[in-house]
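Final paragraph of the annual report: two paired records, presented back to back.
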Amino acid sequence: MRVAVTGAAGLLGQKMVESALTGGSEVFPFDMIGGSETAAGPVVELDITSAAEVRNEIASCGPDWIVNTAAFTAVDDSEGDDRRVHEVNVVGVENLLAAASAGGCRLLTLSTDYVFDGSAGPYEEDDMRNPLGVYGASKAAMEDAVISHGGSHLIVRTMVLYGAAPGVRTNFGLWVLQNLRADREMTIVTDQMGNPTLASDLARLLLEMMERGAEGTWHVAGRDRVSRFDFAVALARAFGLDKNLIRPVRTIDLGQAADRPLESGFTLRRLQDDLRLEPLGLDASLGSFRAEVERYGDGR
């Protein structure tokens, strides 16, 4: 299998490259900023908002699959930059769809629990969407674009992605770990529910879905649904660090620019029943995260 990965310099992108290579695929890594190294070699610069660039680069490598992990994911910053968010999260995917159609390949692209309003989680794939902010609305518009394009498609919603890899942005898991190791107190919300998802495990599951020819919209995340606070406490326990540095707070008291879906999370019945795929539970994923940190560091 030939796999093009966009956003290959990011956390999930790197894990996807590694997973595909391990599975015997030929991998072509792309990112908005080129030059960094992946397990498949140097990243090729590709601006997915440029239709011409996307068309030319995808045609040159002739993949069977395009896996799009590139996205504008800064939730609060999205509130003041609607145009850029739309360009990356919607127009970029439309460009990839056009290239996939022209090249006779398939597109897998990532979505989020932020397409829901967090009033009635955990959510199933067919539950009504009602995004609260610009980021979630852009992902809902992306889903609509993929579906309206027609043909075979694969949309995977995930959430609370964490992990360690060279040169990646700090994610929630790394941020908690960095603070714990520095003996800094932190306040973490008790009223945001979700499924913490180790990026390397998500990449494993995505590759399995691709190999099995999965279609449609799927929820793929860690098996256990917990609050952000309980996730942080479990992380402290896994690393033998002081959980008393973690202080509880309500989301409303943080004054963040973007609203968050509070009672969120996914049911994973379709993934487990239809494909017989089982994501890692929280304790197992934290064990793997610890091994990643030992290999790559905690990003400080």
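The closing record of the year follows.
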Amino acid sequence: MHSDRRPRLTPAIADVRRAVRTALASLPSTSGSEPLVLVALSGGPDSLALAAATAFEASKAGVRAGAVIVNHNLQDGSADVAAAAAQQARDLGLDPVDIRSVLVGDAGGPESAARDARYAALAAAAAEHGAIRVLLGHTLDDQAETVLLGLARGSGAGSLKGMAADTGQYLRPLLAVPRTTTVQCCEDSGIVAWSDPHNLDTSYTRVRVRQTVLPLLESELGPGIRDALVRTADQAREDAEALDHFAEEIAEDLAEISEAGISLPVRALAANPAALRQRLIRLAVASEFHVSLSRTHTLQIARLVTDWSGQGPIDVPGVRVERRENLLHFSAHSEERDAV
């Protein structure tokens, strides 16, 4: 049953509501019935604060709000945790409330496998209910952790730009809100949040970053590390989006598509800065063969342009690349094709 209790408006509640209000206002307007958004709810403080604020702000923004709870089945009692979160969503007035039970595999490690299963369940729920966005409770702290992990892995601007606030499918209203605020918001609202034991398990890389690495950096370098990492993400995202836009514009003029694959002129690739040249290579492969190249493979291909000495074709996963006079030619490559 929807609770009519009105918590006293505190700074934490106001900050979370303001962030949600701004995010919902950015959604494209639709004609006809009110569109639906779904809050991805775990029962933890971040997603509960998001759910409470969304329930309060949705009608004023002209949208309906529901919730989807993903039970990963990774802990004893996970079904009870999911059921409790679903009841909290109903008490907040969210509708529909959908519980999705998933089986998590082991591909890519436990964190990656759980994330893949969760996002697949969220996407399925959004499609079934016709939701225009799924709202995720990632906070400023999550963004800082993501940027630091990307930096440690040497993943380039793609990781340094962190998580996008709006992907067209997912909306992250709380990326500028610190975790301390979401915790305080729940306390001020009288909402009891679930504490996930996995958030204390140091076998997970992100937990070690959260509990050890970031506190150590703040201790040694001074406060404000999280804010600085988030500012870095914002700038990296702006730069990456601009370069991606330029690459797409250039590719439309340069690419030559045929039944045998796609080609790019060597002279034009050589004339562009490395950042654009490598984007053009990745874009050609992604658009034609739906393959995401690693930086190592991208640089290997780029050497056919910048360090040409007559070398033969290069095989990377799913693609064969060779220099034919003044063209860099990309074609499908697989063991099955070579066996014929």
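The CA atoms of residues 148 and 213 lie 9 Å apart. This concludes the annual technical report; the extension proposal builds directly on these records.
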